[in-house]
Amino acid sequence: MDDDIDQDAMAAEWEAAAAGEQPDFDSLGDDGDDLASEWEAMVDGDGETFLPAQQSSGPERILNQEEIDSLLGFSVSDDDANERSGIRAIINSALVSYERLPMLEIVFDRLVRLMTTSLRNFTSDNVEVSLDNISSIRFGDYLNSIPLPAILAVFRAKQLDNYGLLTVDSNLIYSIVDVLLGGRRGTSAMRVEGRPYTTIERTLVQRMIEVVLADARQAFAPLTEVDFDLDRVETNPRFAAIARPANAAILVKLRIDMEDRGGRIELLLPYATLEPIRKMLLQQFMGEKFGRDNIWESHLATELWSTKMEVSAVLDEMQKPLGEVMNLKVGDTLMLDAGPDGLIELRCDDVPLTHGHMGRIGHNIGVRLDRPLSAMAKKSLMGFS
């Protein structure tokens, strides 16, 4: 019976608490109307609810689409500007900027000049080559962004022991075929979409690619000797994978104009390919030396020649137990296994230098060297200098 009473009392208590949490608009009168109007003001005409951040502040502002795009770093108008801001900048922060390799720009400027001359001789037409952009990109992102159809040439940098990729777009392919086969000027090249490239088209483009790779070899010649050998020609980007999708690479976009015809060539070099010559690419100008001061080197060499070093003449060595050494007294004699004509070893600290014979010069004891410096001594001295 007591349990029933307790249960009824607890139920009544919960009902009273629930009634106290819910406002009674009928009993509030004008205050209830004001509270209801306040809730209605929080709901706008489009059904969007604005909840106040604090009781004393106004309604919370919702970001529009332009502000969201700016925060995320995406925009249709200016891709280059947005890549340096927002979440996209954080994602791409792992990429190494090509601006840290200033010599690359000089190399590719040289490549543009060489290609302008060589392609004019190759096509017998007025060819203008321009450098559009040099940027850093992940290899997987570049493969996904290649506009198809295109021809992809995989080449090998022989001395660097790695690969690179050269992409020729469809506009340039049809333009080169039209120029080399005697197409008239002023007429656009005929394009037949939806079909693979023929053997003649692939052969003609391959000849142009070999000309470009020969120019690239000359462009890198002032820095280092690199032979770019054509490995294979592909039309499917999946078969042109030369690096992991997440690896960073340098992308160079070149524009080739032949009066009213032309197209693009894109040269991609993974950072793994450029790693052996990274120190050369870090130079601000040709022949720059890092961390070296010729004046300080000559001064250090001069001081080393005048440095005094202590040389010990070792007559003989023997091993004795520690107990005998501790029992030695003044006047004890140690018998050495060395004769008057025996070889004497000269040492500098623990480094053996050479051997000689002991003699006398006036009232001084001297050593006459009979052998040249040992290989270990020469290596130690060269390490000091």
Helical stretch count? 15
The stretches of 5 or more residues where confidence is low (pLDDT under 50) are 43-56
- Percent strand equals 15-25%
Order of the strands making up the biggest sheet: 1-5-6-3-2-4
Please count the beta strands (DSSP E, at least 2 residues each). 10
What does this structure look like?
This protein is α+β, with helices and mostly antiparallel strands. It contains 15 helices and ten strands. It has a six-stranded antiparallel sheet. Strands 7-8-9-10 form a four-stranded antiparallel sheet. A hairpin with a 4-residue loop joins strand 2 and strand 3. Helix 7 crosses helix 10 and helix 9 crosses helix 10. The radius of gyration is 42 Å and the shape is flat. The relative contact order is 0.09.
Tell me the layout of helices and strands.
Elements: H1 2-21, H2 25-28, H3 30-41, H4 65-72, H5 79-82, H6 86-91, H7 102-123, E1 128-138, H8 139-145, E2 150-157, E3 162-169, H9 170-180, H10 199-220, E4 228-234, E5 248-258, E6 261-270, H11 271-274, H12 278-281, H13 294-305, E7 312-314, H14 322-326, E8 343-348, E9 351-361, E10 364-369, H15 375-384
Antiparallel strand pairs: 1-5, 2-3, 2-4, 3-6, 5-6, 7-8, 8-9, 9-10
Helix pairs in contact: 7-10, 9-10
